[in-house]
């Protein structure tokens, strides 16, 4: 078995002066997997994601990325390997042009000249916004800004792409277009979402996090087909959505 690109063992976390958010979470994601992280509000999903590149540090347990422990000594490399796209793209876009935003990370790694230009072009092409390269991010639609935010992460050539609620605030057409883009990306994917049909469409495996623990881990269609499981963890399919039969 290969080394997981994400390997969390017994991860627990309590916010200072507040509540316990995670209780001994185990999660292992291997290269090429596409995994949906599901759960109700307050389940600990965002807290878990913030452990993946060292924004939060586990009070107990360990977090490793491609065999590297998430410690100060490895933090720069960890943050290159784990690309997190946050729910609000404006949290990641701050430069005068789209091109500048996508070039920012690779330039900080020392890329210059044609190599940097090629990296930016490749990332923008992957999310179908190359034609927007010279536009100001704040002049773009929300869906376009989300794609640019993804491009800023892809330009770092991460081992794993982490998306936090990628369909929030998208209209149906933008939602469908983004699904087509994500399906075509040759990356390992961890997607935090309340959008259960999106999970079914893009991720073969799902993990349900509830009250800070892993409540279920298995094939997405199997989990979404278990009405009692969904009900226990405050997850609901849209009215009229029929779960496709798992082969």
Structural descriptors:
247 residues, single chain, 9 helices, 24% strand, alpha/beta, 10 strands, 4-stranded antiparallel sheet
Describe the structure.
The protein has 247 residues and is an alpha/beta fold. It contains 9 helices and 10 strands. A hairpin with a 2-residue loop joins β4 (60-65) and β5 (68-69). α3 (98-108) crosses α4 (113-126), α3 runs parallel beside α5 and α4 packs across α5 (142-154). The longest helix has 14 residues, at 113-126. It is globular. 40% of the residues are buried.
Number of continuous helical runs: 9
**Biggest beta sheet summary:** 6 strands, mixed
The strand count comes to 10
Instruction: Based on Cα principal axes, name the global outline.
Output: globular
Structural class: alpha/beta
Strand content: 15-25%
């Amino acid at each position: 078995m290969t080394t997981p690109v994400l390997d969390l063992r017994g991860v627990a976390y309590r916010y200072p002066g507040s509540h316990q958010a995670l209780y001994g979470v185990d999660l292992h994601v291997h290269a090429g997997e596409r995994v949906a992280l599901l759960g109700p509000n307050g389940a600990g999903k965002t807290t878990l994601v913030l452990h993946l590149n060292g924004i939060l540090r586990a009070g107990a347990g360990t977090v490793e990325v491609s065999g590297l422990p998430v410690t100060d000594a490895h933090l720069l490399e960890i943050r290159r390997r784990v690309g997190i796209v946050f729910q609000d793209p404006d949290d990641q876009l701050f430069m005068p042009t789209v091109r500048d935003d996508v070039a920012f990370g690779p330039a900080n790694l020392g890329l210059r000249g044609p190599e940097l230009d090629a990296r930016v072009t490749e990332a923008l092409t992957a999310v179908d916004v190359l034609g927007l390269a010279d536009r100001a991010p704040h002049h773009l639609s929300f869906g376009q800004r989300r794609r640019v935010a993804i491009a800023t992460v892809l330009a770092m050539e991460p081992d794993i792409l982490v998306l936090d609620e990628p369909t929030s605030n998208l209209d149906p057409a933008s939602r469908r277009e983004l699904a087509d883009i994500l399906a075509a990306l040759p990356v390992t994917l961890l997607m935090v979402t309340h959008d259960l049909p999106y999970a079914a469409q893009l991720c073969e495996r799902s993990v349900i996090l509830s009250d800070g623990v892993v409540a279920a881990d298995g094939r997405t269609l199997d989990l979404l087909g278990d009405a009692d499981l969904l009900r226990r963890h405050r997850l609901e399919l849209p009215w009229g959505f029929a779960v496709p039969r798992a082969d």
